[in-house]
Each structure stands twice: as structure tokens, then as C-alpha cells.
Design a protein that fits this description.
Largest sheet: 6 strands, mixed
Radius of gyration: 18 Å
Number of helices: 3
Strand content: over 45%
Shape: globular
Strand order of the largest sheet: 7-8-9-12-14-15
Order of helices and strands: EEEEEEHEEEEEHEEHEE
Helix content: 10-25%
Number of strands: 15
């Protein structure tokens, strides 16, 4: 997936979950942060960032914060980017030849509980699948970790995927690592052990837990390489 109208700026401070101050050639301006995660290890004062300009007159801010330049690389922090990258990847045969890739599809369990999964896929061989995508921006050494904050919503999705398997669907959790140089993925038990436990149980029940690094540039992000998942 690719962005247009991308510019380099300097991060000043985060005002709240959705808004930050950045320094551009025009001075200090407000910027929409496209990720509600904590991002404390990335959004540091004076960090080089990449922002996308919008010309929408109805917007409160004309900038979206999409990536951060660290000492080693560019890290994409746009929470919408993983789904866009996965859609392209699925349509190009990432999980196998697919005849249908449908985003945002509702699945209803036998008990009436509904879950909206990121993708419903029909493969040419007749198999059907649901997939949930999780973007990952947190790392420890060369390992990527998720989540960076407790996620009850994430647990609900994982439980729902287990029900999909029981009813004959294939099911996937796809962790999209929004950076390079990562050797493995692990659930962040220190932050939310219940999510890690849900993920391990889902793996035992047949949900496929997969992780991929991405090639990240200031104006693009593309799924690159599958890496080991250590549950």
C-alpha cells in the first residue's frame, strides 16, 4: 500500500490519543495520530516523523502521522495500514489462490454472539476462512510483541475464530509487523497475559497464528517475510 503527499517533520509532543504537535517548515502544527496505542518507545521529542497532508477542508488538522524514523529504520504506525497491506497480499495469493476477499465481514456463532472479522476469504479449492489482522509496532530486542496495551476486543476476536474452526472454516490471526529486522513474534504476556493465553488456546484449537514483517518506506508498506511465532 502506498501514500501520497508525504512530508518529513519533527515530533514535538503528544497532546492526547489522537492529536500531536509537529514541527514543519511552516512552524508548529497539530497532527492526527493514526494509532491510539501508547507508542512511548517511538514518539519521542524531536523524533523525525513522516506525515501525510490532506486537503479535506472539513478536517480539524491537515496532517496525519503515519511513520517514525528510528536510528535503524522507518516504522509505520498507521493502524489502518496493516489491513490495506493484507488485502493486497491476500488478493495476490498470500494465503493461497483466493476468488473472494471480503473485508469487514460479520460471523455469528451458534449462541447468537456476533464478531466482525477483518477478512472473509473463499479459496479456489473451496475452502472458506476468516482472518483477523493485528498491527504490531512494539519490539523488544529482535522480537515483536503484541499487544502494547490490554485488549479485551482482541480476546473476543480470538475466541470467535475458535468458533469458526469448530464450524468448518479455516481461521487466521495475522500479526503484521510494521517494521523490518524482526526475528520472531511473541504475545506480550507482561502487558496482557489473558490475550497470550487466548492465543495459545486458539492455536491448540486449530486457529493458525502467523506473523509477517514488512518492507516500510516513508510512503509505503508491503508485507515481506513470514517469521516464527513463539507462543
Amino acid at each position: 500500500m502506498r501514500y501520497t503527499n508525504v512530508y518529513k517533520a519533527v515530533f514535538v509532543r503528544r497532546l492526547n490519543r489522537f492529536t500531536a504537535e509537529i514541527e514543519t517548515d511552516c512552524g508548529t502544527e497539530l497532527c492526527h495520530v493514526k494509532n491510539t496505542g501508547r507508542l512511548k518507545e517511538l514518539l519521542l521529542p524531536k523524533a523525525a516523523v513522516f506525515v501525510q497532508r490532506t486537503d479535506n477542508p472539513n478536517r480539524k488538522t491537515k496532517w496525519d502521522l503515519i511513520a517514525v524514523q528510528t536510528k535503524e529504520q522507518v516504522v509505520n504506525i498507521d493502524s489502518q495500514a496493516p489491513n490495506k497491506a493484507v488485502k493486497e497480499w491476500l488478493e495476490n495469493g498470500g494465503l493461497g489462490k483466493a476468488k473472494t476477499v471480503r473485508p469487514e465481514t460479520v460471523y455469528t456463532e451458534a449462541g447468537g454472539t456476533s464478531s466482525r472479522f477483518d477478512f472473509y476469504i473463499e479459496f479456489e479449492n473451496g475452502e472458506r476462512a476468516f482472518a483477523e489482522v493485528k498491527g504490531v509496532t512494539l519490539k523488544c530486542g529482535s522480537a515483536a510483541l503484541f499487544p502494547d496495551a490490554p485488549t479485551e476486543r482482541g480476546i473476543k476476536h480470538v475466541h470467535g475464530l475458535c468458533d469458526c474452526v469448530k464450524n468448518g472454516y479455516k481461521a487466521y490471526v495475522l500479526f503484521v509487523i510494521q517494521m523490518q529486522g524482526i526475528s520472531c513474534f511473541m504475545p506480550n504476556d507482561e502487558t496482557h497475559i489473558a490475550f497470550g493465553e487466548a492465543l495459545r488456546n486458539a492455536s491448540r484449537e486449530g486457529v493458525q497464528i502467523l506473523a509477517y514483517t514488512c518492507t516500510v518506506l516513508p510512503d509505503s508498506m508491503e508485507i515481506k517475510t513470514e517469521i516464527p511465532v513463539k507462543l
